[in-house]
TrEMBL record:
Belongs to the PHAF1 family. Residues 199-225, 280-322 are annotated as: Disordered. Pfam families: PHAF1. Residues 286-297, 305-316 have a biased composition (Polar residues). PANTHER family: PHAGOSOME ASSEMBLY FACTOR 1, UPF0183 PROTEIN. This is Uncharacterized protein.
Length: 519
């Protein structure tokens, strides 16, 4: 092949301080990032996912791309990309303002030194003094690290500890023979690494999802749902980043409302799985005497887990106009179905109107008024399944993580937060107190609040090129084994279902909530 037609071995990636690296945008969700990476197996052949099995939502989630010399860090709560690290300059071709960081060899795998301080200075200009970190151990061969920060990007230079003198300026230090070329690079949001490093991955960051979803055009991308407020009585409030909140009324919100507010669904799944219908014969003893089913939950909803395309061939479409056409064709259809919103993080069940669940007993009198439902002759939203995208769970990476909070309206307990990051034992204890006395007897309460085991591991495996370091979700007291195992590897995929009025929790062995059904 002529030299001028030879394709580059390393794709050229532009460094965008405070924004990202190539198509990797700071603030993008873990779900969106994995979709983009897995869509390019030739460029990203290996993806290793590290997480804390005992605390999958509190500790960071880390994507290692060993073939590309990259490490991506996501916060655990929001699952948004907070830090991009280049650990091997020989595995990726970096560019800034039309200038390459280093000249790479013709073949992958060859050893390449990082950029020198002089080269970085010519590319990016002067900056403020950085921070010196002494050697961590005696095995460091006397090499400390000097962290040099620019707004949104920082470099780590190995520096002989014997050469470090506080009175010397950083230009003299890093341009001397005691300093080696940069060994790593970090892209983040902030004025300097010293200012942001402590709080970079802490829970509840102030600005979630700083960047739009990378695979959708801006003109047709609906505003992402940041938080779902569950208010009881069939009411949900969906908070958006830059648009007014969406009010969803179970039993009243129509398909047209959903398309207008959320955009067309990513897939439509027609309900046909009746394997759990055997459990739908028993109801609480006094439910028929209550006008709105005041007993905490019926087993119709407790066992109805046929909620999405997890085990089916859904009608997927990346073309939003095609998806909109499908919805229009099904406005008058009599088939119950789920609208799968993978990029929002939830499914919405479309069925004939039914009375939604009762209000929380602790809510204000005005909030306990029954909302009006639509006529009974057409489909409306009657159920919403909110997905946690918990690392190690069976449906991991099928949905973007969506956060939620349960607002019981209890004026005596304003400091209690019932949200998607709460362990289920805390959620359960508080909800049991709220609904105490709503059952016909103690035995009935125990019956409805015991966990039903659900196995999501039997059937088609969601295997892909990702590697979960340590395997599937395990109980917190189970020792993790060394090594890597694919998503489709050993593991039962067992979860438990627990029901309360209008709420069904799917809980993992580590007490994290994998999904929450609101009806």
């Amino acid at each position: 092949m002529p030299a001028f037609l030879r394709l580059p071995v390393h794709p050229l990636e532009e460094v965008h301080p405070n924004k990202g690296l190539g198509f990797l945008a700071l603030g993008s969700s873990l779900h969106e990032t994995l979709i983009r990476l897995k869509a390019q197996p030739d460029s990203f052949p290996n993806i290793d996912i590290s997480y804390a099995p005992a605390n999958p939502l509190g500790a960071p989630v880390i994507l290692n791309l060993p073939a590309n010399g990259l490490r991506l860090r996501f916060d655990g709560f929001e699952q948004t990309l907070r830090l991009i690290e280049v650990l091997d300059f020989g595995q990726i071709q970096l560019n800034y303002n039309n200038t390459e960081f280093v000249k790479l060899p013709e073949s992958r795998g060859a050893t390449t030194a990082g950029p020198t301080f002089r080269h970085i200075y010519h590319m990016m200009g002067p900056t403020f003094p950085g921070e010196y970190l002494p050697p961590a151990s005696s095995s460091s061969k006397g090499l400390g690290s000097y962290i040099l920060s620019y707004p949104g990007v920082a470099f780590s230079f190995p520096l002989q500890s014997s050469a470090w003198k506080p009175e010397l300026d950083h230009v003299s230090l890093l341009s001397s023979s005691a300093a080696l070329p940069a060994k790593s690079l970090a892209v983040y949001v902030g004025s300097s690494w010293q200012d942001v490093r402590e709080g970079l991955l802490k829970p509840n960051p102030p600005s979630p999802r700083l960047a739009p979803s990378p695979h959708r055009s801006k003109d047709h991308r609906p505003d992402e749902i940041e938080l779902v407020r569950i208010q009881g009585n069939g009411k949900l409030e969906m908070m958006r980043r830059s648009s007014p909140p969406m009010q969803m009324l179970l039993g009243g919100t129509t398909p047209q409302d959903l398309v207008m507010e959320l955009g067309p669904p990513d897939a439509i799944y027609y309900k046909n799985d009746r394997r759990l219908s055997i459990h739908k014969t028993r109801r609480p003893s006094h439910q028929q005497s209550q006008p709105y089913g005041a007993s905490p939950t019926s087993e119709d909803d407790m066992t109805d887990t046929d909620q999405s395309s997890t085990h089916s061939n859904a009608n997927n479409s990346d073309d939003e106009s095609d998806a909109a056409k499908v919805i229009r064709d099904n406005f008058h259809s009599s088939s119950e179905c789920f609208y799968n919103y993978f990029h929002h993080g939830f499914d919405i069940f479309m069925s004939y109107p039914t009375d939604p669940s009762p209000p929380f007993p602790t809510s204000a009198p005005g909030d306990q008024e029954r909302p009006r439902t639509s006529g009974r002759d057409h489909l409306v939203a009657t159920k919403v399944i909110l997905h946690g995208n918990v690392p190690g769970s069976y449906p991991f990476n099928r949905y973007r993580r969506v956060r939620w909070v349960i607002e019981t309206g209890d004026p005596m307990d304003k400091n209690v937060i019932l949200d998607s990051e709460s362990p289920f034992v805390a959620l359960s204890q508080h909800l049991q107190q709220i609904w105490k006395g709503a059952y016909g007897s103690d035995s009935e309460e125990i019956s409805f609040q015991r966990g039903m085991v659900l196995n999501r591991g039997w059937g088609d495996s969601p295997g892909d090129s990702c590697e979960l370091l340590g395997g599937w979700e395990e109980s917190a007291d189970t020792a993790k084994k060394e090594g890597s195992i694919g998503i489709g590897g050993p593991g039962s995929g067992n979860t438990k279902l627990f029901g309360f009025p209008g709420l069904v929790f799917e809980v993992l062995k580590n007490d994290a909530v994998s999904s929450l059904t609101v009806y």
